[in-house]
Amino acid sequence: MEKQQQMKDDVKLCIDSQKDELYSLSRDIWSRPELAGEETQAHDRLVRFFSQAHTWTVESHYKLQTAFRASWGPVGGREGEQALNVGFLCEYDALPDIGHACGHNLIAEVGAAAALGLKAALQNQTELPVPVKVTVLGTPAEEDIGGKIDLMKAGAFADIDLVFMAHPAQQDASFLPTIALDEVTVKYHGKASHASAYPWEGVNALDAAVLAYNNISVLRQQLKPEWRLHGIIKHGGVKPNIIPDFSELQFYLRTPLVKDLCILKEKAEACLRAAAVATGCKVLPTLATYHSLFPGSILSFTSALRR
Questions:
Q1: Residue 207: which of 241, 172, 163, 237 has the closest Cα?
Q2: Is there a single domain that holds both residue 28 and residue 106?
Q3: Model pTM score
Q4: What's the pLDDT tens digit per position in 11-63?
Q5: 84-90 and 162-164 as β-strands: parallel, antiparallel, unpaired?
Q6: Do residues 121 and 12 touch, judged by C-beta distance below 8 A?
Q7: Cα(150)–Cα(279) distance, rounded to whole angstroms?
Q8: How far, in Å, CA of 139 to CA of 178, rounded?
């Protein structure tokens, strides 16, 4: 217990001693919001933050243009033994127009602070049962394309054993369940024509978009209470006197479980295709699926450190 208390004290002292730098980091990211995939200033700010410590190995533009990786260690354990790699995530992209409404600047600050704290707790320990390494990943583009998916495909998580991330919320919680989500982009292609002189020659892609939106709205009445389906019309034409030959919508489909998402997706696709049939347009839906997450056990990790 004395050893554990000392490690806790080391974490607290480390974070308290760097609270001004951490606040400045968060404030800089918050005051200069950048959209998904365009977080050059936030990327550079975080890279400088970890590079200034000199004890971190920092890789800028890691796998993705605005991602980074900072690592420290391993320490403890026997020489040649495989290290337990503990990861912390930093997000830092913002939303269009309203900036950091989801608090990704705070996710960056907390991820950095937690990594510094764990490093402080470990660096003076000589009798750890296994070697431990600390890794920080900057994961951009979370508000749009789900940057973690691209990082996973690129192998960024391949050598990390467990990962921690904190997200702002209105209450304290050790885990916030993440539901499954389908991001659906729908594009209708019709035929342009003059809306006054020759309307019968046109195929109205905006009509398809409006029908699709209304179909989805009617479907929403029959959804289970925990299911969500919402979206916007992103593009609906150029000028009032031209029948639109192109329209685009974007919908989010959310359910607690992936198996439920498959059912909701089938119902939504029927609504979208029906609009194409009714108007004579061609429809091209594209999907990006995000699976639901459940809390994993960290008992093996904590047990290993206590042995």
A1: 237
A2: yes
A3: 0.72
A4: 999 999 999 999 999 999 999 999 999 999 999 999 999 999 779 999 999 99
A5: parallel
A6: no
A7: 36
A8: 17
**In terms of DSSP bridges, do strands 57-60 and 68-75 run parallel, antiparallel, or are they unpaired?**
antiparallel
**H/E run at residue 306:** helix 299-306
Half-sphere exposure of 109 (CA within 13 A, CB side): 19
Question: So what's the pLDDT on residue 299?
Answer: 41
Q: Which of 165, 160, 107 is nearest to 135 (CA)?
A: 160
One domain for residues 78 and 102: yes
Q: What are the φ/ψ torsions at residue 164 (nearest 5 degrees)?
A: -120, 145
User: 128 and 186 share a domain?
Assistant: no
CA distance 257 to 2: 43
Q: Are residues 126 and 199 in the same domain?
A: no
**Domain containing residue 139: CATH number:** 3.40.630.10
Total residues belonging to the chain: 307
- The structure tokens listed for 158 are 């391949």
